[in-house]
Structures are given as C-alpha cells and as structure tokens.
Specification:
Helix content is 22%, strand content 26%. By secondary structure, the chain is an alpha+beta fold. The longest helix is centred in the middle third of the chain and has 18 residues, at 47-64. It is globular and about 45 Å long.
Length: 148
C-alpha cells in the first residue's frame, strides 16, 4: 500500500452560450482558459480572484471585436454610477472587485464593488479624439494574468 494520498480532481469550470444568429459573436465561453488561469483550481481561488480573471477575459474578447474608432467602457447597473472608460481592474481578496478609469467628462473614477453585486455591461465608446490609436487594455490585462 502506498503512502501517497490521491489528489482530489479539480473540477473544470463549466460555461455555455446559446446564440440564435447565423454568424454569432466570438465568445469567451467557447474558448479555453489561458494556462495560468487554468493552473489554479477554481476551488482554490477567492470569489474576487475568479471574478477578476473572467472579467479580464470578457474585456479582452470584447475589445478584439471593436473597430479602430471605439474603445471599451463599462456601464453599471443600479444607482447613478454611469459609464466608466476602463483603464484598469483589480481585486482584493476575498470579495472585492475594483475598476479604475474616467467618466464621460474625463474625471478620474474608481468603482469598488462586492462580487455579489457584480453586474457590468461592456460598451463600445468612440475613442478619445486626442489619441491616434484606441486604448486597448484587454490585451495588457490578459498578459498580466499570464504573469501572475
């Protein structure tokens, strides 16, 4: 008899998308998780970390479908939070997600949200006229996920 304890199998996260259009959008749920995200079992992640990682994947995927005239922003449900042009996202274990950026007038803005209240809408806003290229944060955020 071996002294080794069998490792518990990690449950892979489930995802599903139903789309009725003929040429549906490219969706996160149909793509494999990046290796660094998949390396840590979901059971070992805080709700904040797991929400943060998936939000980054959604942001990156949304940006990949934008033209050069638009940048990503988030709309928030409830209250008068409005729209936030996304410049950064973070989490604080075990249950806080935070978004950094600016509002429609360019005012520095930060939203701190409990994961149980997570409800965001990704939006395409016209890019800022003082920038030659649209600001794409999804690729930078996803690269940071790979480094962590």
């Amino acid at each position: 008899m071996s002294d080794e304890t069998p490792k518990a199998k990690s449950r892979q996260p489930r995802a599903h998308t139903a789309d009725c259009s003929e040429s549906g959008p490219v969706v996160v749920e149909d793509q494999p998780l990046p290796a660094k995200v998949a390396d840590t079992p979901v059971e070992q992640k805080s709700p904040a970390q797991w929400a943060y990682e998936r939000l980054i994947l959604y942001i990156k995927n949304f940006e990949e479908q934008l033209d050069n005239e638009h940048e990503i922003a988030m709309g928030f449900a409830g209250g008068d939070a409005g729209v936030l042009r996304i410049e950064g996202i973070g989490y604080f274990d075990p249950d806080i997600i935070t978004y950094y950026g600016s509002d429609g007038e360019g005012t520095k803005t930060q939203l701190v949200q409990h994961v149980s209240q997570l409800s965001v809408m990704l939006r395409a806003l016209p890019k800022q006229v003082d920038h030659a290229e649209p600001n794409r944060i999804g690729f930078r955020l996803a690269a940071q996920l790979e480094e962590e």
